[in-house]
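User: Structure please.
Assistant: Input sequence and predicted structure:
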Amino acid sequence: MLLKNLISFIPEEKKKIKITGLSTNSKDVKRGNIFFAIKGNNSNGEKFIKEAINNGASVIISSKNFKYKNNKILIIKKKILEIF
């Protein structure tokens, strides 16, 4: 699936990124995955962003402001809302 089919507000040059899956665990990330760096009660996924990238993540979604030198990685900063 192409990223543009999942997220509409991305830069034109990133819309053709192929997405192969989704993950919240950096150890399970495979090439082409979206990694959701979620802050939880027991662990903070933001600490594992670099590991997720090293494992092949193409897109990182995080509430943390994060910069990475590789321009092939798309970083999306979003405030994560809690729903009760």
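The chain has a mean pLDDT of 83.
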